[in-house]
Design brief:
The protein has seven helices and eight strands, in the order H-H-H-H-E-E-E-E-E-E-H-H-E-E-H. It is elongated. A five-stranded antiparallel beta sheet has the order 4-3-2-1-5. The protein has a three-stranded antiparallel beta sheet with strand order 6-8-7. Helix 1 (4-51) runs antiparallel to helix 2 (55-81) and helix 2 (55-81) crosses helix 3 (84-102). By secondary structure, the chain is of the alpha+beta class. It has helices at 4-51, 55-81, 84-102, 104-119, 200-217, 226-230, 262-280, and strands spanning 127-130, 133-140, 144-150, 159-167, 176-178, 185-194, 239-245, 248-258.
């Protein structure tokens, strides 16, 4: 096809001529579009901040105005520089097709963002777990969820100082646990080892009183949560069970605490239990 280079050269020459004639005006129009949409976004966010204090609502509007107006700018600028709006839609179609072919996961993550936002699966500040990763939600982006990581081992669910970027598409194929909705409570278990000579009834009563004091300090409704009621588990007060493990007596206390405050509540519980035991002369059996 010997005529192909000449055709391309002719098209390039024609485009350069149009650019020389229309370039300064198009450049000025582009600047006006960008500045105008930037000012519009600032005004919209100012109105949102005045009318709501909800972090989730503000974040939603921040994301909608950022990406929505960016798409508007792309269409307007493409229409200005290319041959009509049809070319702009053609460009968008080609970009979408390229994303689908090159990186399906990227497109799936983009699709997951409105699903997360409108279905309110979780919001800024919620403590969640997606698959094997857990943390506090810092940002909900178009492609990634940003978490402040928390430890996953028992009794170590405190911030690690690291950030986790989780692709949005993970919500479609991984379990999602949200500790921040409802009463934001979890059941915690603490094992109290006893000696063989310990007065079991007395120790059990003291441990139960200490657990009840921890729950009362949170100002919680002693009744069951909605989830517990649905599961027909109406007992929401602390429970204490006696167990023998490796020929040792143990008391297992179960009580409700805040998901993000489990370690602190356990610390306070142990202080209370040991203080009560010391006053009554109860011995805790610890391995040497």
């Amino acid at each position: 096809m010997p005529s192909l280079p000449h055709d391309l050269l002719d098209q390039l020459t024609a485009w350069l001529q149009v650019f020389q004639a229309e370039g300064p005006r198009n450049l000025l129009t582009t600047v006006v579009i960008v500045v105008g949409l930037w000012v519009l976004r600032r005004l919209v966010m100012r109105v949102v901040r005045r009318h709501t204090t909800s972090v989730d609502t503000r974040h939603l509007w921040n994301q909608l105005t950022r990406y929505g107006l960016a798409l508007v700018a792309l269409v307007l600028i493409s229409n200005q520089w290319f041959d009509g709006l049809r070319s702009a839609f053609t460009v968008l179609t080609l970009v979408a097709a390229a994303l689908t072919i090159i990186h399906k996961e990227t497109l799936t993550s983009l699709t997951a963002w409105p699903f997360i936002t409108w279905r309110s699966l979780f919001g800024i500040g919620d403590r969640i777990q997606v698959g094997g990763q857990s943390g506090d939600v810092l940002d909900l982006g178009l492609f990634f969820i940003t978490l402040a990581e928390t430890g996953q081992e028992a009794h170590a669910d405190q911030p690690t100082g690291r950030l986790i970027k989780i692709p949005n598409q993970k919500i479609f194929n991984e379990p999602v646990i949200n500790y921040g909705r409802g009463a934001a409570l979890i059941w915690n278990e603490v094992t109290v080892p006893l000696s063989a000579t310990t007065n079991r009834q007395q120790a059990e009563a003291m441990v139960r009183e200490a657990a009840e004091a921890q729950v009362a300090a949170l100002g919680l409704d002693p009744g069951p949560s909605e989830t517990e009621a649905a599961l027909r588990r109406t007992e929401a007060n602390p429970s204490v069970y006696l167990r023998v493990v490796d020929e040792r007596l143990q008391l297992i206390v179960r009580y409700r605490c805040l998901a993000e405050g489990r370690l602190a509540s356990e610390h306070a519980l142990w202080h209370d239990v040991l203080t009560r035991f010391d006053e009554a002369g109860v011995v805790v059996s610890l391995k040497s």
